[in-house]
Amino acid sequence: MADERDLDQVRKDIDLIDREIQSLLSRRAQCAQRVADIKLGEVLAARERGEPVTEVVYYRPEREAQVLRGIIERNPGPLAGETVAHIFREIMSACLALEKPLQVAYLGPEGTFTQAAAIKHFGYAAVCEPQTTIANVFAQVESGDCNYGVVPVENSTEGMVSHTLDNFMDSPLKISGEVELRISHHLLVPAGVSADSITRICAHQQALAQCRNWLDTHWPHVERQAVSSNGEAARMASQMPGVAAVAGDMAADQYHLEKLAEHIEDYADNTTRFLIVGREEVPPSGRDKTSIIVSSRNKPGALFNLLEPFRKAGVSLTRIDTRPSRTEKWAYVVFIEFEGHLHDENVAAIVNELEEQSILSKPLGSYPRAVL
Prior knowledge:
Layout: H1 2-48, H2 61-74, H3 81-99, E1 103-107, H4 113-122, E2 127-131, H5 134-143, E3 148-155, E4 159-160, H6 162-168, E5 174-182, E6 186-190, E7 200-204, H7 205-210, H8 212-218, E8 223-227, H9 230-239, E9 243-247, H10 249-254, E10 257-261, E11 271-278, E12 288-295, H11 302-313, E13 317-324, E14 332-339, H12 345-357, E15 360-368
Parallel strand pairs: 1-2, 1-3, 7-8, 7-9
Antiparallel strand pairs: 3-4, 3-11, 5-11, 6-9, 6-10, 12-14, 12-15, 13-14
């Protein structure tokens, strides 16, 4: 009886806490609405004064990163810090939607890892709109039809996504953030389909590469077809007899597919990094990265000269990659990613030095390092 009374009391305590949480959520949402009213009022007042103003900026990437970091740092447990931060991400997403729901373009169709990355970064309250190509994601954001875009840029085992890098060459968009997503691939088929009926396995070329060893071992004689995305592969598997897809959990749910095999990626720590692209520059958050494109004349020591300013300033590089130049045969542009923000004095000095010695120097933006 004592145990039963104790259990009843704990349940009553939980009910009281739930009511308190709900009340606090309502108060937070009301504060978000007040923020929206203040921002709109400032813009209207500026217009009345004849000052040039842009649209109201509701989403602040640097502010959100600071809030999430603070949540993790002060978390007392027993829930893990990242678990609590994910909960707060959804709270912030829902509150932001009261101000103005974000329109987010991503590489589709529905069910791709890029959609999962968009939801991880912006929360479920954002309106995510699938696009058929990375170029279309950029176009949607450039036109203003979407506030932000999400594109894959790098996989931990297969390297950089060249199409994303190429689109930055001519685009005015800025990088606003990054997302890291643990990638788990499954072999998906419609319900009731047997293994011996599979004649073709479809996936994005990066997914096929990430599962190459497993597929060579278990399905060596079955045709493999690279398609535009894993989501498209899952759609094909749901409609075409004999087709299996390599894709993730979201695609399985979206297209009602079953897992013929789970976790077939060759490396357990397989992770893909995605970039958030937007039209505005992001102020410093305190823990930032910067990405730039540079190109110099083809001469001995050219790459060394590009990297030397970073060494002298003690700035750590986090990524360096090259792509063929579109304007000169056998010439290359270098994508450099490093710690710091363009507003930092030492970073600004590096960028100025690169501009003096390069035939092309284009900052792509500074943005908060991934928190989750």
